[in-house]
Design brief:
- By secondary structure, the chain is α/β, with parallel strands linked by helices.
- It folds into two domains: 121 residues, Rossmann fold, CATH 3.40.50.300; 281 residues, no CATH class.
- 39% of the residues lie in helices and 15% in strands.
- It has 15 helices and 14 strands.
- Helix 5 links the parallel strand 3 and strand 4.
- The longest helix is centred in the middle third of the chain and has 22 residues.
- The chain starts with 11 loop residues before the first helix and ends with a strand.
């Protein structure tokens, strides 16, 4: 499992940030609290302003109103951490990048969308680049061997090989611990798991209300997150979520109320739903276009449900559900490093694909996620081949690869039907 060094562990976002600073005047780094945004930006910053430093916060807020240019002075790239507490910084940075006519001037980091965006008057188009950071992948935490590169699969999909060292017990713990950088270096597994529990408490007690200064009920927030945990990977409507919550709700809920809670969780980057993929098909069929429900990290679902590694090992159906969330997290990070995005596919016939990695150049790979076992791998491979056969390759490229991504299994290998089987413990960007 992960090492115990407290030194900064290099992130895939490091290179992305460097590239974006070379191309644009400013970079906005967004993502959930404790995922490493500030630490990543600090590695490339030449000067830093911590807006929420308790000893200076009032002074910083006053300067934002009266002499905002003072806050922007310093060697570049200048990091402005938690910029969203003074939203007018956005326009000030945009103005400075316009007039200095240089790249790599500013980095803004934030763990929430500004509660008051009335002080933002410009979109930042042409001045800002955006970088979304997520919790660490198994490759970044040192738990994946990295012998199978997603990038290489798009150019040489026939060359796959790797040995997986992760056991089912390792994977169960990784799901529960999550990819939070600080949790990797805890002395005990219990301490690592406790960090996620406390994070969940902070979200439901404080963050969900503070994000937009709307008072929200802590217990309702917990019930909503538990429902979301049970619906990971599902195209669940607001109505479905309410039905799932009803048994423990003391009073009726409106769609608008639950939608506002979900919106708040998205603003603090706790929820990151997955959009649908809409390919060109040989024959017409209705494609389901609803987003699929996901937390940004599987450990949040674990904390919401109040379970641990042993519970997962005793309930493989639940483990399979939350393993999918872990894989989606890693695939999103690996895909972004390759200028791509992750989607899902489902149609009215019931045919589905858990993840489609689609690059900007039009190349794409089809991925089914399974814990392991020959029967599940066979089912996943059949789905992938059925979908590949439906795609109209006269109008779009054929898939670069078809992959069943598993939790366990000793080796990476290519099946005779052209579907590769890859343990998550072998994958990297």
């Amino acid at each position: 499992m992960a090492g115990n060094s407290t030194e900064y562990r290099k992130r895939l976002a490091d290179n992305l940030l460097k590239e974006k600073l070379e191309a644009m005047g400013a970079v906005l780094i967004e993502g959930p609290k404790a995922c490493g945004k500030t630490t990543t930006a600090e590695q490339q910053a030449k000067s830093i302003l911590y807006m929420d430093d308790p000893s200076n916060i009032q002074q910083n807020l006053q300067l934002a109103e009266t002499n905002i240019k003072r806050l922007l002075q310093g060697e570049t790239p200048r990091l402005i951490d938690e910029w969203q507490i003074a939203p007018q910084i956005w326009d000030a940075v945009r103005f400075e990048t316009d007039h200095r006519k240089d790249d790599g001037l500013f980095m803004l980091t934030g763990s929430a969308v500004p509660a008051d965006d009335s002080k933002i008057h410009h979109s930042g188009t042409g001045r800002f680049a955006w970088l979304t950071m997520r919790p660490m992948t198994l490759w970044e935490s040192g738990e994946s061997s990295g012998e199978v590169s997603l990038r290489a699969l798009f150019s040489h999909p026939d060359k796959v090989d790797g040995t997986n060292q992760l056991t089912m017990e390792n994977v169960a713990f990784a799901i529960c611990r999550g990819g939070w950088p600080k949790s990797l270096y805890k002395k005990t597994q219990k301490a690592a798991l406790r960090q996620v529990t406390e994070y969940f408490e902070a979200i439901t007690r404080l963050d969900i209300s503070r994000v937009d200064n709307v008072e929200r009920d802590e217990q309702r927030a917990k019930r909503l997150m538990r429902s979301y945990a049970r619906l990971q990977g599902a195209m669940a409507s607001i109505t479905t979520i309410i039905e799932d919550m009803k048994a423990n709700e003391p009073e009726g809920m409106s769609d608008e109320t639950i939608a506002s809670y979900i919106k708040a969780l998205k603003k603090i980057f706790v929820i990151e739903d997955m959009p649908a993929w809409n390919p060109n098909l040989r024959s017409k069929t209705a494609i389901r276009t609803s987003d699929t429900r996901y937390f940004v990290d599987p450990s949040l679902a674990i904390a919401a449900l109040g379970i641990g590694p042993d519970d997962l090992l005793n309930d493989l159906n639940t483990m399979g559900l939350l393993f999918e969330t872990l894989c989606v997290r890693d695939l999103r990070v690996y895909s972004e490093a390759n200028d791509g995005n992750v989607y899902h596919y489902r149609d009215k016939t019931g045919l589905e694909c858990d993840a489609v990695v689609h690059l900007r150049n039009g190349s794409y790979g089809l991925i089914e996620i399974k814990l392991g076992g020959e029967t599940h791998i066979e089912d996943g491979a059949a789905n992938l081949n059925a979908l590949a056969d439906k795609i109209d390759t006269a109008k779009m490229k054929k898939p670069s690869f078809k992959m069943v991504l598993t939790a366990v299994g000793q080796y990476t290998y290519m099946r005779t039907d052209g579907v590769m089987v890859v343990p998550i413990g072998c994958l990297k960007d």
